[in-house]
Specification:
Blueprint lengths: L2 H21 L3 E2 L2 E2 L1 E2 L26 E6 L9 E3 L2 E9 L24 E9 L5 E10 L17 E2 L3 E6 L3 E6 L4 E6 L16 E3 L2 E6 L6 E6 L5 E6 L10 E4 L4 E7 L2 E5 L5 E6 L10 E3 L2 E5 L10 E5 L4 E2 L12 E5 L10 E3 L2 E6 L3 E6 L5 E7 L11 E3 L2 E5 L4 E6 L6 E6 L11 E3 L2 E5 L3 E6 L4
Parallel strand pairs: 20-24
Antiparallel strand pairs: 1-2, 3-5, 4-36, 5-6, 6-7, 7-8, 9-10, 10-11, 11-12, 13-14, 14-15, 15-16, 17-18, 18-19, 19-20, 21-22, 22-23, 23-25, 26-27, 27-28, 28-29, 30-31, 31-32, 32-33, 34-35, 35-36
């Protein structure tokens, strides 16, 4: 054995350890400082940091606030001291969104503006901009709903790179210093009524998954995260949806769950269909998530009679659809046929599934059985809700489009503790990030870092 070969052999285990450590979530003290994707770890919207804030206002418990140019409804994500988000900055007049608007926001043609599509990195401690990277410049090829944006998809990170996805435009891979590593353009596809796109990418291992459900050629695509090369692609039914997929790691296998119009499908990591079921509303926005061996899926388009919330057991194969009149079977643990919200994703916390309805109602169900705890209580003085609820420290937080957060006690009673209000000019459509002892809220104008006892 030569000296060179011996050195290589002894170095490779050490190198493997170093790479493993570099790929792990960042620790500051004993607190994990990462929120790598939409709704955080496992897409749950739940945090467990110490001393997290439950009260704030424009000038109370605000560690910093940073104005963000342009418009974007992507959520912030965090790795270590870096906060990442996306935006689309217009160089012409862009019609402003209207709070609470559902119908009447269709726009048949793209706006006549020049857009600068950007990824932005802020410093977690100060809120100062570390870098901005323009990944594309040009006029939009497709329209969006008045309340949507051209940067609604939340980026995702593995702690080495950031993957910024702009639906009908493309996917851009950047390193943590903001340099472009690779990019992949996508052909624009027509969406229902020209509403635009919103489903965020997800990462698992060395693969990146993109779900694009549209009215022309829907697909689930798997890419190599290192190069952007396509690994496989599965065509789907032509119907627009805005639900982010879930990589579900259960005790049987790892699978990719996708919710869509009329049907939920799950695929293995090679794109083979594992199981499916029918019985969804005609539009699906909410993200699936899992807990305690059950998968939770909801679909609640406001104009449909069927707005189901399901809990699914692991290990299914083939068609597991419910028969007419059924609310459970071998793999469907339970179903509440009219319980689902439209825009927000439901929240599982402390053994209960909380449901926040767009039009200011709140409900709660037992997570394991679907039994109602309380149903459709009116949120006092609440208006319109798009942001998904989140939870920590025995409390559930619901942020409306006007920037008012309603803080509820987690439990069997409908108990509103207090409300927290931001600035009048803030419109809220982005689900927050929660890291360490900080809450990061993105509004139409800025990002707030909220921290207990902040000066």
């Amino acid at each position: 054995m030569t000296r060179t070969s011996h050195a290589a052999e002894t170095a490779s285990p050490l190198l493997a350890v170093v790479l493993l450590l570099c790929s792990q979530p960042v620790l500051l003290g004993q607190t994990r400082v990462y929120w790598p994707q939409f709704r955080g770890p496992e897409a749950r919207g739940v945090a467990s940091g110490r001393n997290l804030p439950d009260r704030w206002s424009v000038d109370e418990n605000i560690a910093w606030k940073t104005d963000v140019p342009g418009r974007g409804w992507s959520s912030p994500i965090v790795w270590g001291q870096q906060v990442f988000l996306t935006t689309a900055v217009n160089s012409g007049e862009l019609e402003q969104p209207i709070k609470g608007l559902y119908f009447g926001g269709n726009r048949p043609e793209p706006p006549d503006v020049q857009l600068e599509y950007k990824a932005i990195c802020l410093d977690l401690d100060s809120g100062k901009t570390r870098w901005e990277q323009t990944v594309q410049l040009g006029r939009p090829d497709s329209p969006i709903h008045l309340k949507n944006s051209y940067a609604s998809e939340t980026p995702v990170t593995d702690g080495e790179r950031v993957y910024a996805y702009f639906g009908n435009l493309g996917l851009y891979c950047l390193d943590l210093e903001g340099s472009l590593v690779w990019s992949k353009r996508f052909e624009p596809r027509a969406t229902r009524n020209g509403w635009g796109t919103a489903a965020s990418p997800v990462l698992h291992g060395d693969r990146l998954y993109i779900l694009n459900d549209n009215d022309e050629q829907s697909y689930l695509m798997c890419l190599d995260k290192r190069t952007g090369e396509q690994v496989w692609r599965v065509d789907r039914d032509k119907a627009s949806n805005w639900s982010t997929p879930l990589v579900w790691q259960n005790d049987r296998r790892t699978e990719i769950v996708t919710a869509g119009t009329g049907k939920v499908r799950s695929y293995d990591l090679d794109g083979n269909l594992l199981w499916w079921f029918t019985g969804m509303s005609s539009i699906t926005i909410a993200t699936p998530y899992a807990d305690n061996g059950l998968l939770y899926v909801s679909s609640g388009y406001v104009n449909d009679k069927l707005r189901p919330l399901y809990a699914i057991r692991a290990g299914a194969s083939g068609d597991i659809s419910l028969e007419p009149g059924q609310t459970s079977n071998r793999f469907v643990a339970w179903c509440q046929p009219t319980a689902a919200p439209y825009n927000p994703t439901t929240l599982l916390y402390d053994g209960r599934v909380y449901v926040l309805y767009d039009r200011s109602m709140f409900a709660c169900f037992r997570a394991l059985t679907g039994e109602p705890v309380f149903e459709r209580e009116r949120i006092p003085q609440g208006r319109h809700f798009t942001v998904s609820p989140w939870a920590y420290d025995g409390k559930v937080f619901c942020l409306d489009e006007d920037g008012v957060t309603f803080v509820f006690r987690s439990g069997d009673e409908f108990e509103l503790l207090h409300t927290n209000k931001l600035a009048e000019d803030d419109m809220c459509m982005a689900t927050p990030a929660i890291v360490g002892d900080r809450l990061l809220l993105r509004t139409s104008a800025r990002v707030y870092c909220i921290r207990q006892d902040a000066p």
